[in-house]
Description:
Largest sheet: 2 strands, antiparallel
Structural class: mainly beta
Order of helices and strands: EEEEH
Number of strands: 4
Helix content: under 10%
Shape: elongated
Strand content: 25-35%
Low-confidence stretches: none
Strand order of the largest sheet: 1-2
Amino acid sequence: MVQERRVSLFRNGRNQAIRIPKAFELQGDEAVIRKDGNRLIIEPVHRPGLLAVLAELEPSEEPFPDVDEGLAPLNDVAL
């Protein structure tokens, strides 16, 4: 089902603007707009999540530090 709503265009300085009704709100704070014939298409910019960013990182050849160095063995720790 295609939702449709008539809206007003107005001027904001030298730019033409449109108020987006709550029912059509986009996620985030950035969007991409493009023109296709006489249509304007507005799409939210999706920022990748942490897992997507980590998946694109190159593997590191640097050795991981020994974080247990200098600590007492676990069997000597009293609970």
